[in-house]
Write a structure and sequence with these properties.
With about 70 residues, the chain is mainly α. It has one domain. Helix content is about 85%, strand content about 0%. The protein is built from 2 helices and no strands. It has helices spanning about 10-40, 45-74.
């Protein structure tokens, strides 16, 4: 069994990577959910769901690349 690293930089990078793994699906789900609620409120069918799903995917990618760039700078 290998010992756990005690380096703070290692744990900081690990925390950033785990947040990157959670950020993408969360942004996608929030975008779709917001679009679904708008469709339901306005009586439109899939228009806002699709638009906000795409916005959520874009936001997920942007956050993912920001986190990866932050890890590379450390």
């Amino acid at each position: 069994m290998t010992p756990m690293p005690k380096d703070k930089a290692f744990w900081g990078k690990t925390a950033l990577l785990s947040s990157a793994g959670l950020m993408f699906p969360l942004c996608t789900a929030l975008g779709y959910g917001w679009g679904y609620l708008m469709d339901k409120w306005l009586g439109t069918k899939p228009i806002f769901s699709i638009i906000f799903l795409l916005f959520g995917i874009a936001a997920g990618f942007i956050n993912f690349f920001r986190i990866i760039a932050k890890i590379e700078n450390k």
